Queue: 4 jobs
Job 1
Amino acid sequence: MSEQEKIYPVTAEFAANAWINNEKYQELYAQSVENPEAFWAEQGKRITWFKEYTKVKNTSFDPHNVSIKWYEDGELNAAYNCLDRHLETRGDQTAIIWEGDNPESSKNITYRELYEDVCQFANGLKKLGVHKGDVVTIYMPMIPEAAVAMLACARIGAVHSVVFGGFSPDAIAGRIINSDSKIVITSDEGRRGGKQVPLKENVDEALTNPHVKTVEKVVVVKCTGGDIHWHDHRDLWWHDVVAGCAKECPAEPMNAEDPLFILYTSGSTGAPKGLKHTTGGYMVYASLTHQYIFDYKEGDVYWCTADVGWITGHSYILYGPLANGATTLMFEGVPSYPTHGRMGDICDKHQVNILYTAPTAVRSLMAQGDDVMSSSTRQSLRLLGSVGEPINPEAWEWYHRVIGNGECPIVDTWWQTETGGIMIAPLPGATDLKPGSATRPFFGVQPALFDSEGKELQGATDGNLVLQDSWPSQARSIWGDHERFVQTYFSTYKGVYFTGDGCRRDEDGYYWITGRVDDVINVSGHRMGTAEIESALVAHKAVAEAAVVGYPHDIKGQGIYIYVTLAEGLEASDELRIELVKWVRKEIGPIATPDVIQWAPGLPKTRSGKIMRRILRKIAANECDGLGDTSTLADPGVVDDLIEHRANR
Ligand code: WT7
């Protein structure tokens, strides 16, 4: 039997105790797609509304009129749902367990403490002149203040835009400019793997960009105490901002369709797009999926290893778990520091029950051998999750056998920044698992596979993955560019949402995501546009032309492979290679560090001048025998040179 055919049936424990068993899944799924209106009217009750909704779903995927509204006349506040409503029953329960980069530093924050911190900082933001609807950029390490800042924005109706700490000053500047952000919240430095990350310095540099015109204040958390530059007219310490502020602050009533946050993500073309997520549907969906997919039970300790700079951190470190009154663990560091056993050690230290991480982390631990987890027992774990990229069956098996001691189901969750919450995933009490498959759609999610001509494919087949109807946490638009939203997601196939992913459906109706079908690559679960990296490269004076593709990488899933044609008269050298690697890191950020640079005297182009990426992908993957049709190439000799000098063999 091949690994891919192996089935892990629902365990007896989950079948008996889980929120949803298979019967219930079938019944609720049928309801959710046959009568979404009634289904979501019911599910909406899990959230506390200041004003009840009377309308539930009002959505159109018609490319002439893309419009997505859920619970549109309801009013609520996201922070109220994450904090206030828990105070009476679980004020003294831990809301956030914070585990520092240094294994000796950790702390527990109760719901009441978190409530007070959020209220106090919300008052501080008000004092700085932040109003409902203003955009606040958050560029922070994984410290409790990051969560406090996000919730404080939500409390007063400001829209947060979190920028991952691994992005460069240019990337921060681009996001500030695009969102007209008034305030930036950061820290002096961050800590990761025993090193300091110069966050404030990056913000300072971003703000030297002459196109940044809206930023009035920079609020700085003292985190490491490291040396930083200070600009009196603009910079404020967090502790000074909150000093004297009350620990009570009314939660602003927000319309369900008022924006909660913007989050930037890469696409196949152009600059990163700011996906706009709104309040009501997002909160309903984040909390519902968190409860059912992770089978979250009162008292569980839940740990999602993502960074709050990604959608996973928004929905499944913060909003989903806190809406459910969970104890959510927030980890400042990395899985390899001080040892590769760290994740297991944290599970034991905090008695973690549910662990949600990324395949790249699993593979990097797997590469250390089975003993890597020997410093911990991980006996507290009962469920594992995976997110961000396809998990290869071998890594799945290792995750199950070694990290989970062979006892924990794995929920492989497929979703996107755009979807706001998990779309396709097993329910651990309902779904038999197949390693490598995200299995079946969640309630209300209607996947379909289309061929490149736009025809829907039936039965067991491969195709492009689309979603046929809206769900509550769907992104509503691209910030400031609705037309681009329509173009990107609703114009490839009429009347459906196009995900950009390829997918296989098997005989059992299980979905297997095969990866992006557009020019987006996924490096260690981080999504990057090849066009973005290319435009960074051609901005360097030595580069005449560049083409970027992904190639299979044992640990990262995909690595970044770059073909560079140098400017006339320039010689290739190792120094130049190093300089270009540095250049990309500076332009985009360390997460875009190139893995391979190949000097290319020419790039394969069609006679009309279009770069044939298909060929470049094959060469980068060292699959030179299957180059397919090259008859449309303007100069076939170019390919021979690239094959001869390929870097990955
Ligand atoms: C892309 C979205 C949403 C979580 C973090 C990534 C890929 C995500 C899986 C999975 C196979 C996956 C897809 C998707 N992806 N999860 N379980 N199996 N592929 O969010 O940065 O918006 O990236 O990540 O290609 O389109 P993102």
Note: The longest strand covers residues 543-553.
Job 2
Amino acid sequence: MAYQTLIVEIEDNVALIRLNRPEALNALNSVLLGELADALKSADGNDKVRCVVITGSEKAFAAGADIKEMSSKTYVEMFGTNFFGTEPDSIGRTRKPIIAAVAGYALGGGCELAMMCDFIICADNAKFGQPEINLGIIAGIGGTQRLTRFVGKSKAMDMHLTGRFMDAAEAERSGLVSRVVPLAQLMPEAMAAAQKIAAKSQISVMAAKECVDRAYETTLNEGVLFERRLFHSMFATEDQKEGMAAFLEKREPQFRDK
Ligand code: HXC
């Protein structure tokens, strides 16, 4: 499907979704978020897709929600339309793994979008920030909650209250991103990670993703029990038999998502 604000390519079982509003540093407007929700839904339902990568340009992953679109809105319009209250949920509903490949600015809603993905790989020129405070507003797509879970209260408060940016090294040190690579290596690294995931059994990949996400939603004991039950359920799959047989026979497994 052709989108106005996204370029979507499917290659070797990976859907690469590129945010494409270069004139506004990929600022997230209603069209873009609607299209992203649609692209993720179709990736989730497409048997050829086993992992998703979301990226932007070398200059900006996304410089935030679109300030031009929001500037003249009233409270009644924002509340009445539940502004950006529904589209981002589609990211959370995606069962296949999503990697954010971030270069340049990931600010405001852009940082929030990256944090909604399953993990973030960034280029050495990445800059993360929640600068909404400079506009007389606050984060609105989960930034106060997710950044705090990623980097802890002190840094999250610092970022939200001062609006300062965090560079790639600090982002890695703080646990916001899983890897930092030179800019030229960003897409090869992200695509290689996606392909590595795509080669696993989808059943165990989706189960692992559900379990890690559960860590944010429940107590340790309940989370561990949830994990153990899903772990036990893996033994109902053919892929468990294949994975363990392949190890014992010293060969590569041929997973069939069964
Ligand atoms: C709309 C934006 C934009 C944004 C950049 N642009 N960010 N348009 N919304 N968030 C546009 C600029 O207006 C400009 O268009 C073009 O992109 C290039 O930007 P410049 O500012 O000229 O580039 P540069 O000098 O390199 O500065 C880059 C920047 C700066 C530091 C990223 O653009 C910036 O501070 N942007 C805003 C960041 C921000 O505050 N984000 C939070 C938004 S609020 P023209 O037409 O002038 O050339 C938010 C709330 C989320 O995200 C919750 C919602 C529910």
Note: The beta strands are 6-11, 14-19, 51-55, 60-62, 98-102, 105-107, 119-123, 127-129, 165-167, 179-181.
Job 3
Amino acid sequence: TKGPYEHYMLKEIHEQPALVDKLAAFYIKNEGRKELDSLKGFKAPAWHLTACGTAWHAGLVIKNYFEQINRQRADVDIASEFRYREPILNKGEVGLFISQSGETADTLACQELCKEKGIETFSIVNTEGSTLFRNSDKNFLIHAGVEIGVASTKAFTLQALTGYLMSRAMEGTLDDPKLFSEIQLLSNRIGELCAQSDSLKEVAEKIYTKKGFIFTGRGKYFPIALEGALKLKEIAYVHAEGYAAGELKHGPIALIDENIVNIAVVGPELLEKTVSNVEEVKARRGIMVVVGPKNSPEIEHLADAYIPLDFNGLPNLSPLYVNVALQFLAYHIAKLKGTDIDKPRNLAKSVTVE
Ligand code: F6R
């Protein structure tokens, strides 16, 4: 049941803090530990991450972990592209498939392809016993419980977190006490967002009638820009696209006028670079919403709305935290528009045909 929540999506967003804590305990301290320990020192010449939609965005987050923490090459593909592009797959490489349902047709076809080429296949999956689960050499369950809202929320967070734990397992640092406290901090910060969701509603009220939304992010926040845009278009039926912040002037800036909102996701890392982006959008009368570090007067005063977040202590996990703010924003915009949030038109929870 939905309990006190108006929609399953809202309930599932609120479940995230507890699920994050549970997953960390499972993989670091309890039964899941032996599965992760099997990755200790593991090195593949290349990882091929493949998924669709939101799970693909989680793959983009995980790629950054494998490359930056483990210095291992990781390619990420949209499953419907990978299966037809004759990918180069060599012995020793690993296919990593990310899926909530474990039944997505394109993702399963990619797994078949990897198997035909004789490479190992691993999964990050929610549904135990699903086709993907049954056909994988190794499974890393995300333990999200049933996700009913068609728009995926908690599955994304837990997929990305599982990928992070895999990365730390390969590095051999699962016993680092800082890891556990970092994940606890993530859970606390998501909890704070859940408690302050009304302030995100106020931002939604300012922008929900606008015609188009361009989400921008750099580096580790680029996948979050993509995911924020996907969530919004799925449930609010407005045009939304995610862009790498540096690409704004290479095309999408042509769209900017008073009917367009730029939602910029900015970490403390590259704050100054974003100031000029914001100025460019404002100069064209665009509406600027910035999701960024709290106490950043240099950028706050430029924005039409500022969503202040506390990035401290989350060097690796901040994308997962920021994403929850965008989940709430999409939810509140959709609610103001009166759409069917849990069952958006034209969408199915699991896409089992090509
Ligand atoms: C987005 C969404 C879809 C799924 C995609 C993959 O909110 O729900 O984009 O993420 O269809 O589904 P799974 O993860 O079941 O393979």
Note: DSSP finds 14 helices and ten strands in the chain.
Job 4
Amino acid sequence: EVNEVKETYVKPQPKAKVNGEIWVYIDHTGDEVNRVSWEIMSEGRRIADLLDTKLAGVIVGDDEVKPIIKEAFNYGVDKVYHARVKGFPFYINDVYTRALSKVIKKYKPEAIFFPGTRNSRELASTTAIEVDTGLIADCVSFDVDEKGIIYSTRPDFGGKEMSTIICPNHKPVMITVRGGVFYPIKIPKEGEVIVEEIEDLSTKFKVLNYTKLQKRNVLAEADIVIGVGRGIKSPENIKLAEELASVLNGVVGVSKPLADMGWYPKERQIGQTGTTIRPKLYIALGISGAVQHLVGISGARRIIAINIDPEAPIFQNCDYGVIGDIFEVVPGLVKIVRER
Ligand code: FAD
């Protein structure tokens, strides 16, 4: 069943009509795009359609970004603005802020979505100051109303509540979006590239060395994730989950207490203060379903929970629930999958 899930874009009916475009900032490291840019492009497409306006990508960089611009047209953009900063293939805050602000002031978009990456979060905040608007950070879902106002929802109060924020009096609405929440949907389009040459390239920064990180986040990219919680009782028992992951070709992730106790690497923590995952299948083993954990798995297509406690909140947030002991259910599951 998992393999049958298909990603297609269904164009929504417009709820309002706005004049400005919806922009998505394309985050990159010179010649390589940050995947979160494509994730939020599909959500940007939906918001643009709801507001009956165009979707544009906006990118700052030198000519190395041309293949990325080409690729953007696979993800539903009507056009791409390229603020060309000659000699600056990589992100440098003051140069990129000036370049982006220039195109914003000239073309006046309705809203700009930024990937929640380290560089883009910084760029969004310095650009918001430069163009004299506000910034809504770390959002995970969006809607619009019949007046064309965008509603951005984000976890708040340490993840205990969700807040919905509007910015009706300032344009553009600037928003950073958490990675791993949306799914990149291929929507091939054709459109124009508008190049803006940036003249003022003065900078206070001096780059001494640039090192590309090779590390990929296997958890964020996995199709099947086996989540392990305190119900596993000891670090040695995690091999049970690893066995299930191995037969299903999945990856093991953990709840925060397990990462805090050093039972599993911190980069495998799922949730608000860990990684947001979007697998096709998430199997939660001995996880209670605290809100800070749920926020990280809300994008999972199917959730199966195995927990001994019928009252565990995870059962309110799963597609299939097994009330049972993981030490009995999981070996049986491994056996069944192996025999198939
Ligand atoms: P527990 O809540 O202790 O649940 C263990 C579960 O195992 C229970 O439901 C129990 O019934 C079940 N169980 C026990 N034995 C068995 C068995 N033999 N078979 C089956 N089931 C069994 N948590 C995260 O996960 N990620 C985060 O990013 C995160 N960020 C946080 C940020 C903040 C600011 C705060 C305050 C908290 C955060 N937390 C986060 C912690 C969160 O509130 C919970 O404490 C945590 O998720 C609980 O982990 P758990 O489900 O593994 O443990």
Note: Residues 158-159, 229-231, 255-257, 269-274, 286-288, 290, 292-293, 296, 306-309, 312, 325-327 surround flavin-adenine dinucleotide (CB under 6 Å).
